[in-house]
Amino acid sequence: MFKKRYTAPQMLGVFFLSLGVFSGGTYYLMKNWIGDPGALFQIVRTMHLIQEHYVGETDRKAIYDGALKGMVGVLNDPYSTYLDNQDFQALSTMTEGHFGGVGMVMGQKKDSQFVVVAPIEDTPAYKAGIKAGDILLKIDGEDLSGQTLNQVVKKIRGQDGSQVTLTLKRGEEEPRDVTVTRSDIKLKSVYSRMDENGIGYIRVTNFNEDTGKDFGASLQDLRDKGMKALVLDLRDNPGGLLESGVEVARYLVPKGPIVSVTDKDGNTQTESSSLEKVDFPLAVLVNHGTASAAEIVSGAIQDTGSGKIFGVKTYGKGVVQNIFLLSNKTAVKLTVARYYTPSGRSIDKVGIEPDQVVEAANEEGSNQLQVAEAYLRQQLQQ
């Protein structure tokens, strides 16, 4: 999940600036930025030596990209990465609700294994039966050991109509190959309906730029039809934009804090709700694929008591990323803050425990929905 895009100084410009005279303000800037201006000079000189003396073919852009990837890579943070032009475009289109690929969100575990956080509903990955928690071992027969999360995501994506073979492992089962045809993924993120008893249902599959607006419209439509209670389904929702999660929470959390975001210097920004009260019974469905912004929403609902959480423990991503623009449509995505629920909990690498644990009895988890609906019917009778 990431918050907003901020413009940063062009790093290449800083590199070339270091070749000048280290004096006055320039020296002060370099000393404070890197601690040792000589170290920065070594980076630039190494790039120059490669260009001038390496016996093989060289690619200036590849050298530059490699240097930046290395800087971010030493953080050993699966959510922080350098985004080249292609990566940046892919990320931008995804948050805008549109990208090319198979339609699954990937994460990386502590043991460096690549895990499916969630397949996106009605996409090729979803239709192929790929599930949250599946471990991705190979792409088109290529072992993924030693690769970064960003590299893996890039390999999965491709042109509409092309195919990719994914080697996946689920639990203790033997690895299996799944061949998926890529498509143009259009991310409709909000689905809604209502049953004959007045129990509304809204499923949010991810949080993109339109999610808050679409959720508000869906909720109002259900209200206009006489909604008495609501099931909010956040299962297999991998998150997305922090602001969109907050927008949705403002419809479901009473007046007070929704989430607090604290940066490395201890500065805290709190997003709040101004809603007087939640005037309908609310049940929320979560599972292991519920992550990031989806955990912000479910955590706020749980802490404020505005609804009851059903399902199994969530993924546990409690950190915030910002996008810092560099040059030529490249960027750095960095983890810049941790977030806390209204009660002050950090759910990073911990997850949210549901108020009532309900294991999925089948692939659709229909029994989880049935339990939530039964709870709401009971609340309406009181």
Short structural summary:
Keywords: Hydrolase, Membrane, Protease, Serine protease, Transmembrane, Transmembrane helix. The protein is α+β, with helices and mostly antiparallel strands and 382 residues long. The protein has helices at 11-18, 24-34, 37-53, 60-73, 85-95, 124-127, 149-156, 211-224, 242-249, 293-304, 366-381, and strands at 2-7, 81-83, 98-101, 104-108, 114-119, 135-139, 142-143, 163-169, 176-181, 183-186, 190-194, 199-204, 229-233, 256-263, 268-273, 282-286, 308-311, 319-325, 331-340, 356-357.
Envelope shape? globular
Average the pLDDT over all residues and give the rounded result.
88
Catalogue the unreliable spans.
1-30
CA radius of gyration is 23 Å
- Secondary structure tally, helices: 11
How many strands, what sense, and barrel or not for the largest sheet? 6 strands, mixed
The CATH H-level homologous superfamily of the largest domain = 2-enoyl-CoA Hydratase, Chain A, domain 1
Task: Please give the domain count.
Answer: 3
Q: Kindly state the number of beta strands.
A: 20
Content of β-strand: 25-35%
CATH topology of the largest domain: 2-enoyl-CoA Hydratase, Chain A, domain 1
CATH architecture title of the largest domain: Alpha-Beta Complex
> Approximately how much helix is present in the residues?
25-40%
Keywords: Hydrolase, Membrane, Protease, Serine protease, Transmembrane, Transmembrane helix
Pfam families: CtpB_N-like (PF22694), PDZ_6 (PF17820), Peptidase_S41 (PF03572)
Transmembrane segments: 12-30
Domain PDZ: 91-157
